[in-house]
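Appendix B, record 7
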Amino acid sequence: MLRAGFKWMFLIIGTTIGAGYASGRELWEFFGHGSGLAIVLFTIFFIMSCYVIMLISYKRSSTEYSPVLREIVGKRLSLVYDVMIFFYLYTTTVVMMSGSGATGQAFNLPYWWGVLFIAIMLIILFLRDIRGLLSINQFILPVLILGLLYVLLVFIFNEDLRLFSHWHEQQNWASAFPFTALNILPLIAVLGAVGDKISSKKEIWVASVGSGVILGVLTYIYNSSLIQIAEEILVYEIPLFAILVDFPFHMVILMGILLWFAIYTTAASGILGLTTRIASYFNLPFWLLVTIILATMIPLTTVGFSTLVGVLYPLYGLLNLYVLTRILLFPIWYKPSNLKS
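Structure tokens (predicted):
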């Protein structure tokens, strides 16, 4: 049970920590100064959201996200949000591929090398269908989380920063709502695709609480570090590299690699949600559908990473607020008869 719960926990974290999050760009768009309470609220909302989505997915034994979506927003609105989820997954996967190109540029590699490399690696990953994604998440994500925490804590120690020095500034508390809402749709898409593989409610509790606490702590520490380099963020496509500016070069290389893996796991989650949704309409191998989808995305990566994050993420955060509201009010409108085992 515990092992299975960790498997889903890493799937959730891998879906959430992508190019936007791991680079620091997404956090800076929503948080920054006065956001301590906002991050606490995000942690609570995130745990509740994961639990509700996984519970519905488990009860419905779903293999793609549409049954879960219908349960949350109703039959009529599910048609609207079905299109929105598909568009969201598509565009954010483009963001991940663009982030791979931007990461390559940080090491003086051509932009297109990074884009094409992640596309090829995604195709290879899905030669094993979903099993490849679950396996790689359990290996990569603990290393990524520990690496990020190490860099951030060393930075805070070297700069003699106090993690709670800005706690009295809480004017940005409302940002918890759009930030959590931003991450709701990919969770519905990915967790809705594995409902038939969840075995018990105990797994759901482990995955929900574990992922929420880990992301909450990491978000607070990361945001505290970003506040200290607020002026430098303006000139960096990836804020994480502004934190790393005084670190040894081997640490910059290591974090660049880990950042790319964060991009990779989130792109893989997006591709999983897209492909499982359309698989029933096409009599094609899973990996071939993945290849076709990726081929349509590559030309769109020319827009630029920071531009995509700055425009799309706040927009999606606002559009998803209704879904978040429905999930947070789940105990009120939920009837046990609706979800029969």
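Remarks on this record: DSSP finds 18 helices and no strands in the chain. The two ends are 18 Å apart (CA to CA).
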